[in-house]
Amino acid sequence: MFKNIGRIGIDMYLLFQHHTTLEILRNVSTDTDIFTITGTGWHFVKYLGPAVVVVGPDCRSERNQHQVMAGPTYQGLFPKVALLPPSVQHCIWMISVPVIYPRLEAAEQIAHTVATGKKAVTGTYNLLGKVTSSVAGVVGAKGVVGSGFDSVKKAVGKSGLMGGILSPFGDIDVLDELRDQWTHESKDLERTYLIRTLQGIAHQKSLRMTFLSGAVDCCGAGLVHDPAHPSDHKTMYQVISASVVNTPPPPYILKLLHNHKPLYVPANGHRSTNQPSDTKEDMMEIFQQEADGRPREMKKLMGRRNYVAIVAYDPEVVQGTYGRTDMGRGGGKLSLAVDFIVQGDGGGAGASGFSAVGGGAIGGGGGVIKYGPVIIPSLDLGR
Q1: Which residues lie across from 236 on neighbouring strands?
Q2: Parallel, antiparallel, or unpaired for β 263-264 and 219-225?
Q3: CA 31 to CA 43: how far, in whole Å?
Q4: Among the residues of 21-100, which ranges form H helices?
Q5: Which one of 110, 132, 143, 160 is CB 3.0 to 4.6 Å from 155, fit for a cystine?
Q6: Rounded distance, CA 363 to CA 370, Å?
Q7: HSE of 130 in the Cβ direction (CA atoms, 13 Å)?
């Protein structure tokens, strides 16, 4: 059944997002747009003008508990990026789950505790229910007692105290989410391989690498970088935008994500130990204020429905050109400006035009607030 669901999902994905079908793709001799490498999964490379390329690897078709993509898939994708024309300055990787993201070890421990507690509670109630029902059978009340214990089990199950934790299949939803993360220990070596390989390509090609992701129901921005050499080829940005139809994660999860544990990317082939290296991970504190103007305690991630707007521009042209019309003589190096458009409360200060330049937030009509911009510079030749 699930294989058929996956097959139909792929058909619909190709039809509605790429306007093509499997039959058409199998009869195409070139792979310059959408292509398969191993026969499992479809990837794409699309140009947004001569200077910006979007790479969309299929991070679902080959995913399991131990990998996101198979080795041959990487060996087919990386050369395509390494052979991009010299005009390309920015390479945006559309990867469903963030590559750069705070760790959730504490949340995993809590989820394991909840899972153990769920099994203990269910087992205890099952045992107690059987014993009590057996005794009640003597007095003719077995049905009533059994019904009562079923009600108690439901109260602590999917529709009760654990309603925000259990998945529709009765598993611990948080654990499933954690296993899906690039930052989970099961994907650690693969994540390091991806980051270190892209850093090498960025150095060779003078390409700025950026990850654009979602799937975590909040928004934010992070980066990996070398503190000793800011903005060199090791600097790669992570932009995170939540689906506009999904509810945000519980407040305790966001709180756990706002930790200040220093994180570092190890050398290729090594597991993460968070020992200092030439590549540090950081989340940017871009959400200084709430939608209504109050100061925020958690500044790295915003748990509201949102989307991002990304604009490529030439800093030399834009700088000091308000009101000018001769904007055709720039240096040719493009930066990306990323704005986060966040759903407000539908009224109050945000809806009436609240503006906070220091906090990077600008309110608009209808309770929509703009945070940013996050500026992603181009990579100078040889840096």
Answers
A1: 224
A2: unpaired
A3: 10
A4: 22-26, 71-82
A5: 160
A6: 6
A7: 5
Nearest alpha-carbon partner for 237 in 215, 209, 205: 209
Q: How many residues does the chain have?
A: 383
Amino acid found at 122:
T
Of 103, 121, 106, 234, the residue nearest 170 (C-alpha): 121
How many angstroms separate the Cα of 59 from the Cα of each of 55, 62, 165?
12, 7, 25
Statement: residue 117 has pLDDT above 90: no
Helix (H), strand (E) at residue 44: strand 43-47
Kindly report, residue by residue over 148-177, the tens digit of the pLDDT.
545 444 443 444 344 444 444 444 455 666
Q: Does the pTM exceed 0.70?
A: yes
Pairwise CA distance, residues 356 & 289, whole Å: 8
Q: Output the six-digit token pair for 155.
A: 């109260």
Cα–Cα nearest to 94, from 3, 17, 147, 146: 17
Alpha-carbon distances, residue 78 vs 12, 65, 108, 210, 357 (angstroms): 27, 23, 33, 15, 40
Determine the Cα–Cα distance for residues 352 and 364; give it in Å rounded to an integer: 7
